[in-house]
## 1
Amino acid sequence: MKLILLGPPGAGKGTQAAELASHYGIPHVSTGDLFRAAYKSGDELGLKAHEVIQRGELVPDSIVIGLVERKLDSLKGSGWLLDGFPRTMDQATALDSLLERRGQGLDAVLLIEVEGEEIVARLKDRRICRDCGATYHLRFKPPSIQGQCDMCGGELYQRDDDRPATIRRRLAVYVAETHPLIEYYERKGQLVRVDGNKGIDEVMAEVKESLDRLIAERS
Ligand code: AMP
């Protein structure tokens, strides 16, 4: 299965992607996680990307496309779930060419739709585990022990780009650069819309229902 998760920052892509990847047994490829891991390990690419990410801007296409191509090459033979890629038209067409070169196709593009003010409310209370990257929310998905990851006991922190001023910039970038992809994939007949305004479990149920229907139609 080859899937893309599309949606504004704060739509819950990361949370849904982690659960979907384990449910369907496919690798979860998050470009944001790849950049954060590269930064943590002191890699030059990570340091460069970090500056851009902190401003709420997008890392240049030339860097992201190369990174994703290398990652997908390493996953040859398996499916994948892309979370946070593509985010621009150039990235979408680069992915199309890559798939064409390999004689492969996308199964679906899941669009998680969420309203603007809800996004700011969600992101400002999001917390991430410094060690394993698990995601929490102070109101909707709080950890059992404050400030500590339920999975590995790691310290929870707030991403620099989850502060309100940067959130607004990320949203503006989403509207300008990523929103056009909705029409692009809709015209190709690959878009599946999911209402992301509901709770995590309800959204998950809707996503699984849509995917199971798709799998049944194709088999
Ligand atoms: P995310 O974890 O998906 O919210 O990504 C965090 C940040 O990483 C984004 O706000 C961008 O600055 C950068 N980033 C992640 N994916 C991409 C991408 N496909 N293209 C450009 N920048 C990206």
## 2
Amino acid sequence: MGYTAEDEHLIKEKWNDLLLSCTKVCKNDEDWNFIKRAFFLAKEAHEGVRRRSGEPYLLHPIAVAQIVIDEIGLGVKSVVASLLHDVVEDTEYTVEDMERIFGPKIASMVDGLTKMSGVFNADISEQAEYFRKVLLTLSDDVRVILIKIADRLHNMRTLGSMPLNKQIKITGETIYLFAPLAYRLGLYSIKSELEDLCMKYRFPQQYAEISQKLQESEAIRQEFIDKFNAPIIAALNQDNINYEISGRVKSIYSIWSKMQRKQIPFEEIYDLFAIRIVFKPLPFPSEKTQCWQIYSTITDIYTPKPDRLRDWISMPKANGYEALHSTVMGPDGVWVEVQIRTQRMEDIAERGFAAHWKYKQATISQDEDEFDKWLKQIRSALNSPTENAVDFLDNFKLSLYMSEIVAFTPKGESRKMPFGATALDFAYDIHSKIGNSAISAKINHKLEPITTQINSGDQIEIITADNARPKPEWLEIVTTAKAKQAIKSFLKRERQNNIERGMQMLEERMNSLNIKLSGRVLRKIIPIYDSNSKEELYSKIGAGIVSLDNLDKVLKTNSKNKILKFWTLFIPQKEEEEQEDGGNEIAPEKETETPSAPQFQIAECCKPIPGEKVVGYRDPATGNVIVHKATCDELNRLAAQFGKNIVKEEVKWSQHKAMSYLVTVELRGIDRMGILLDLAKIVSDDFNINIREINLHSHDGIFEGGISLYVKDAESLHAVMDKIRKIKGIESVKRTIS
Ligand code: MN
């Protein structure tokens, strides 16, 4: 079953088109032969196979090669790899065959493409895991990704012949992965087309409505554009500039997204189009200067909106985009966006990364560095074994789509950050060491919390402290993948260190008590210290949350004591009071926990600490006793509604003070030099209390903030609060539930 005459005719037509485009890239016979050999091999390999639409399969690789050359601007090797891209996957040929016939470079490109489609064809329901795999196959050779995008674009253009379930799968992948990827690689028109095609298949009705409305308003719009352009054309002609001016209508998808985002009808979208001026610059002065000259000409005619000036020339976008954007007040009181760029910038905007090669020698551009940086970032993210697939993907998407801001170091070095980044992200962007020890930031010379979101143009100095440590909450503060990963790996490392330190501390303490640290001993003390595993216990000891000062007493506790889970709470039980064994050693025991032993849980709403008067509430669902402060409102509510569940007996804290409790104290006062130091001194020196976090910020001479501390009981908390109250400038000190 070979090719019919009609097939041959179709193929010949498309092949000739491709050959015509190849004149742009083929330099010698060798190049031509290379492409022809690939074509004939593909033709033979796909013989007899048809696409769902009925046309010969071969038309697909030809079309992909055509996109690769015309719309992305790649060269001979990419054309060859495009022609062969489905050969290994769909036919008898192997990668080894490719290497033998076309050499190692082509073989590795085809291999990369095969692996990528292997992932896409796999029937995996977990989308996230699936995309992670796709990304893992992102080859070192960017051309493989670009060819894959071309492949996807052609499949999207011919999606109509696919059954609905396939359409849903393919559009899902396209909108989630390929469109952002195309954007990140600077392929603006491909990105827009992919989005429009997705919308066309997924939301056909809305797509049709918007495109109809665009058509209906076309004449009026053109009339307006002509009116707007007329004085600009006259002025530019007078300046002898070689330019083209056009009105660019927004893509249907982006109009629709805006309607969704802003919840407005089509009629209320005022920036439906932009005016684009593309010019061929003179050799002198610089391109940038010439762009600004045109800007000046235009703003002599129309008044610019000052906050809508975007200079992507001095500071190109990370995907290489360069242009000058300005919004001016046009006729009839309508704001109009004007984009000014040179032909070179236009090529880059249209064809993205590939166009850079063309201009590489001609201009000193940092864009490729930018791209390399991005790819490096992706790779380092890929190499992180700790992240799960969903996190990874979120981070990845974040780094694909986020619009950018530019912030500066104290020395004036500029750094690109995604929109929404905080000072902490900035700290991590400089170096993970800076991030890990950051405590606050001076933003434009003003002290601000590390959590502050930064704006474009901010100059940021990160204040660090040697003893500062990342906290789990930081993961909520940062937005960049780099910072998230650094924090995660620090916390993981720290936990490991704490475990090791805690284990050592416990062993030493046991040694000094002359008791062997056996599994039985561990099983006894783990619940006593409110832990669920020995790792948790070690880590709490290592972090200083659990103190071993009373270990001897703890070990002496009657093993038959029913209150194990939360050892500091108990309900005195008159009849059953058991005699202590009297022995110092832990007696060999059977089962320690009787089924009736109450499990205590500290109420989240009021978080009582030892020394405070507490009341127990038996949770009917679990049988656990939830311990509230006697004054807790929630307890009152529960008592009113479910009075019978209130534990009749008095719940008491036991004598031992082995645990520390996290409390937050809120402070307010008059800002003065050295107040932080005074605070730290009081809290740490005087009471030997563990500070977890101090977070103070000041404005207009007032400071506010909180200290999180580990305290042993209410008594020591109140003592420290009294001391703090006496510090000069402090106005109010109160405990909060955080
Ligand atoms: Mn394909």
